[in-house]
Prior knowledge:
Elements: H1 3-40, H2 47-63, H3 68-87, E1 100-104, H4 109-120, E2 125-128, H5 136-139, E3 143-148, H6 152-161, E4 170-173, H7 179-188, E5 193-198, E6 211-218, H8 220-232, E7 236-239, H9 242-269, H10 274-280, H11 283-295, H12 300-307, H13 311-332, H14 336-350, H15 352-370
Parallel strand pairs: 1-2, 1-3, 3-4, 4-5, 6-7
Antiparallel strand pairs: 5-6
Amino acid sequence: MSKELLALRDKIDEVDQSILSLINQRLALVAKVGEVKSEHGIPIYDPKREADMIAKRKQEAENLGISSALIEDILRRLMRESYISENDKGFKKVYTGKGSIVIIGGNGQMGRLFARLFTLSGYTVKTLGSKTMHQAAEVVADAAAVIVTVPINKTCEIIEQLPPLPKDCILTDFTSIKVKPLQAMLAKHTGPVVGLHPMFGPDVPNLAKQVIVYCQGRYPEQYQWLIEQMRIWGANLCAIDAKEHDKCMSFIQALRHFTSFSYGVNLQREHADLEQLITLSSPIYRLELMMVGRLFAQDPVLYADIIMASDDNIELIKRYYQCFGQMVKLIEQRDKTKFIENFNQVTQWFGRYAERFIKESQVLLKFANDNRE
């Protein structure tokens, strides 16, 4: 190897060391920012600040002849790390009254995640599980909020078994369906009720940019502190009618998980060589394969419950099955004209979202390609 190349690489190493030092300085500043936000109850995620900063840095990069996409990639990765750092500094406690947070199912993964967040915010957290439910009356006696986060098929049953709650106590649940749990909570408790659905798994490092859906139950003015607490954690709170929520979840969860499940079953029955598929895959197929594999690395009972949660889910999947059969007949007949006609109809239906999804997916595809071994 030439001396010239070695000398250049040495200089690159020096620059990399300088970058590491600057990143360390940035993270130290972020830690201080986290302390200020915690003290004043400022959410860890500020979309306007983030958008403005990225726009400025991209423009500055272009002025220097540097790729703006490169700078955006670097900044977004640094921001993800920053949110984790800020998360560890704790949060302002919104609720000024007395009382504990009781999490039923608190030993589960989602329960532990929220127990940690409430604890970081200065609340006293109590948990109940299947082995301690006989103590429920004593545990909920001073509750400011009771959160039910148990399997879907047990949610309404657990709600019905709850002892009387303090009149101002918030009763809520984290179930991925909302109509039936809300009805059960409203029938059980005369105080404030709200349905919540965290749209993420328990393995997230923090709640920055994560969506939590909430469906109105009763006395919204009394549960606003809980909504605000979650905003401070960085979550994006989205209000929606319970029926509309369940309709959307049929597409987002039930149908999507079922198609991944079916595809995985078919791969296994066809004895597909996963190593070969990974080696030969394009970034988009590798990403799709990862999402299918991710499902099969998790709890089968959870996904069975999500898919079979309602008759509406099953009817939607049956309609999908009929549509799939129609498309199979179309390709059996090698009807290219009809194929293109259907393709164009869907393209028109997607409209501007098609171009938007092209741009968004390009970021994911670059990431998938960067991680190829």
